[in-house]
Amino acid sequence: MTKRFRLFIIVLLLAVSGWFLYPTASWYFFTSADRKELASSSREQIRDYAQKQAKAKLEELKVLYTKDTKSALPADVDFLLPLVKRNYEVAKMAVPSTWTVGDVFKAYTTEADFLYGLEEHYRKNITELKDEKGRILQLGLDLSGGMSVVIKADLDALEKKKGTTLDKTDRDDAVTRAIEVLKSRIDTFGVSEPVIKRESGGDRIFIELPGDVDPERVNSFLRGKGSLSLNIVDDEATAAVNQWIAANPSSINDKNQVEGIPQEILGAGLELRTYFKKDRFGIDQFVNRQVIKVEDKYFLDGLSITQATVERDSISNQPTVNFVLDSKGADHFFKMTQENVGKTMAVVLDDKIRAGARISEAIPGGSVRVTGFDAKDANDLKTTLKTGAMPVNLIVQSYTNIGATLGQDAITSGINSMLWGLILVVVFMFAYYKGTGVNATIALLINMFIVVAVLGVFNMTLTLTGIAGLVLTVGLTVDANVIVFERIKEEYWAGKSPATAIEIGFKRAFWTIMDSHVTAIIAALFLSLLAKGAVQGFAVTLAIGLVSSLFTSLFVSRLIFDFETDVLKTKKISIAWRKI
Description:
Shape: globular
CATH topology of the largest domain: Multidrug efflux transporter AcrB transmembrane fold
CATH architecture of the largest domain: Up-down Bundle
Radius of gyration: 31 Å
CATH superfamily of the largest domain: Multidrug efflux transporter AcrB transmembrane domain
């Protein structure tokens, strides 16, 4: 492998790492506190913010329009120009060279269209900010605080569902299994380190989540029961029920639920469900109400799903969730679709209809594809289904923002100690290995850069134990450099040329470094798989650091040495104070 190609690999890796690390740097150093707060807004708050900002901006433009239609268009609304130009082209109007307020108003036929364009800008602005937040390195509960959630297991509803009284063992088992499902859903990457504990002997569960958490996303994992079913819609019963609701509008309560439907109207084996679709703000909007059949013959439960993946439709580019059914489920699904050709199949998630499709023919094979979800909801649905159905309904009782478990002074002291340790290591390498210490310092900085970038791209959470893993990585990286440098020094002092000493030094140090790193990586991987919480976070960070350390110690350091001897034509190696 030539030096030029090795340099290309290093530069490419640094560029990719910089690309991954940019959102984290931008978030923590260049994003204002107000915008960070906006990124944590709920969907309703985003809608209210976008509408408020749009109305205020429209009023400003109206004032300018009233004063002088030829007023120059303010720079802060330049975002309107692409859509305005498109409207001009559709209307076949001449596009002006300089835009005025009057020109922009001409592009819209109604005030509602103008307001919609403004709202879309502010909505996308916050949505992009939320997406950026999802790609950053989070700080853990001990460093930056997070969210505390109190939820209650609805054991009374479980008793009603089973039709029997639960004894203490059954109640404990239901809560314990609910906690296990929650751990599987929340602790995705292993370094988020959630704290999940149960009230002693009770039915409440306390959860502490690190970082600036989106309450809506948390709520979807906590309350999502993972109960997805495919049901056939009864069109006749749907029409009859909707006629009754129209004649009895008072039957709809403040939660948009229907109460008091006579059994003869609804019919046995049928249940009323509400069909919701998300609007552009991601908020559930009522579409209609449909009656579904819940008999075994016309019902397929999500428990038959063995795999769930999210893909993009090749034509519409919309997210689709693909399910693979087990053999029993596949046979049942084939018979269900075969007997209901021409009817509608409803996709029911946690008692809400999320999508529907007309059955045009029997569907064999056990592969089901459903649409009607945006990208985030599709991935959340996949996660919810893959981690299993919740054994008991959970009621969220409170959300509370909590401060860092470590005081600011303790956090500052910990970060300062890490920085001083890093500085002292660099000083030692310079003092002991003279000019070659530059080599070790460059390798060490590149290693840290890569590790932090990897943590950031996977949206991992950095805690105090993670910092401990980084500190240990620094030590192991320097240790690998020391092994190489000592081997090179021995050969150089034996009278060999710089190039020969470097070649032999790396060859002799290779297996020693490889052995120590591989065994440490194996130990870290086992820790990450078997441990939980703080130990798992430490292990994952250490494993990433060790892999990166191998690369920088054997690849980056070697290239720096080769550059000195082959390009700079160095006659001596500045590796010790001893003169030869």
